[in-house]
Amino acid sequence: MIKAGIIGATGYAGGELVRILTGHKDVEIKWYGSRSYIDKKYAEVYQNMFQIVDARCMDDNMEELSREVDVIFTATPQGLCASLMNEEILSRTKIVDLSADFRIKDVKTYEKWYNIEHPSPQFLPEAVYGLCEINREKAKTARLVANPGCYPTCTTLSIYPLLKEGIIDPDTIIVDAKSGTSGAGRGAKVDNLYCEVNENIKAYGVATHRHTPEIEEQLGYAAGRPLLINFTPHLVPMNRGILITAYASLTKEVSYEEVKAAYDKYYENEKFVRVLEKDVCPQTKWVEGSNYVDVNFKIDPRTKRVIMMGAMDNLVKGAAGQAVQNMNLMFGLKESEGLELVPMFP
Questions:
Q1: Domains by residue range for the chain, with CATH
Q2: Total-model pTM
């Protein structure tokens, strides 16, 4: 059995990690880390775990934890994982970091967008960006995986094939994104109160959202050069889910079959990316509670543009599910182990 520890086990992503790993046949959770609830029974924080998890919450002592487990998941605010990291810890255990600490290779870009000094930039070169469908082989040999952000996962997977195949102009990409409120975390914030969110939709982080440079970096790899995008997220009154609608100019006249072939080239054999049938637009309800990403596209010959769409659960494929997918790769397990979760409906 793989022994796992979770730092940040009582946040929404951490709670989802517990839910998924509890049903994983090859994993035993040994450490439920939560600075806010030290010594409190985990099932008292999440009552859905009553008579399922008997353990108590522990602290975030990564040094001690690394001596007890084979893999550490850090579902923590930016800066914490990087501040706790050292070579001795990495020599003993593997780490899957769900924060942004190791996602962006350029330390100055990270520090500018996150407004903090990077505590351990020496680990950036070896950190593998854990978008499994693109970096699968690198993840298999990694000690440190930077689990992608939720918006970047859905955005990149929706756009990637058309950039790789040169079908769209990289300089014309506009991304409209919408997310449920769990993406903002479990902390008490006025903007997330029921009366603030219900019967409302709003844009936020306009031209300043921290996932922008992460998306630009990953799409830049696909395009073969740096690029800039417009990325605008919106908060919608639902618990889970992300919907991406992206727009770009076509580089040439293409048929539906040609664009579909591009998506099939990259995703036909992917378990967790579903390319929908013609004219079927992705919906968050079709992926809720699962590790699937549904993608599709629509060509607009009138404007010579293509609309690319994607939907996924921000807490599963956008966080905990992808983290477990990465762990499976790192330990040579079946990639879908513990993740064959049928989407919930309604």
A1: 2-126 (3.40.50.720), 151-313 (3.30.360.10)
A2: 0.97
